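[RESIDUES AND BACKBONE]
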Amino acid sequence: MVEQLGDPGDVLIVNATGFIKKGTRSAGVQRQYSGTAGRVENCQLGVFLAYATAHGRVLLDAELYLPESWTGDRARCVQAGIPASVPFATKPALATAMLDRALDGAVPASWVSADEAYGQDHKFRLHLKKHKIGYVVTVPRNQSLGTGIGYGNTGSRADAVTSDAPEQAWKRLSAGDGAKGPRLYDWAMATLPPHPDDYLGGPGGFQRWLLVRRSLTPNDQGELELAFYLCFGPAGTPLNELVRIAGSRWAIEECFQSATNEVGLGPVPGPPLRRLPPPHHPSDARPRLSRRHRRARPQ
């Protein structure tokens, strides 16, 4: 499938989803925030890796998140069938391992997209920089960026960078097609100075940006909502390309919906999800969507 869908400029997407549970014995279950439910619930959390291209999208890998309340209680782990060799790992660490497996398995991709849980993790971003993989990751509005940055040099927080941006700095672009047509937002970007951790590579090296998305209509409080993205990629990457990468994150939600409808994606009753072998591995027997079930991007 990777050979049929893949292109070197494509995107690997990381996201977690929750599986609501009633009991306490399923591996990794505890009261924790579930983005699926939008609140704290008794649930399991799975970290997933998807691959989005111009030809379709597919789930590549998955790991079950085991909270420290589990890895610190080996008797409980044994009862749930979790091997003693499984240590605690943060969600960004699980995501990093899956990305390494995909790239080591020759999945052609130049970009990674992820939400705040990963975007604000310095080690996660640094790992991608070291491997010269571009990223467009969501960060909180108070993300620290350094001093003297922005249109008015007003501060180091993400929300201060574009606070004085003139209206002409905002460009209306689609982040991809949704159920109701193009996902239109206003976008602005600011070039960030080099960071000591930045690694150069390729013609012209790499560069950092802050990308800001602004809604077109006010919310219930009468405010235009903002979302912030830290970006790293080849120098000179245009705004519309960063917007494309940012918008690709919706593809993993579509994968979740397809997996639920077609193969019954749901809670994990026993031990943690076993890691999937890399593509082309002899034991790679993961289920694949048939050609007629692939979700092609609308033309």
Observations:
- The chain has two domains: 1-115+249-285, 138-247.
